[in-house]
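#structure-requests
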Amino acid sequence: MTEKDERPTLSDELFGAEDGPVKPPPDLPPEPVLPAWPAFLGAKPAPREWVLGGIGALLFALVDLIVMWAPLRDRDVASTAQAVVLIVVAFGVGTVLVKLVGKSFRPIGFGMMIAWVALTLFSLGFATGLN
């Protein structure tokens, strides 16, 4: 700080060199703690469920490779029928596994649906016949 007869410096003006002791900031309310997993999604999945979801994604990728083999090898083959088959497999079978079978097969159904979306986005529709 500066003496009374000196002019204040730039650092005095910037960092609040006031007359008297520096007052501590008022107590702020604590920041709300956000949960690690959103409550509206239900219980956090166990590692076993993540593995089963990955197995469902790999299962759909294998089906996708088999169904789309001909359209990806030959450009003259239409892929409309393959696209319908893949949508039915991903969302039809996936929904059956999630809703009707349930229990341990539920993550596999979700994995199949997520794999269809991921393969469609990453391949711009070529891998799922939407191009």
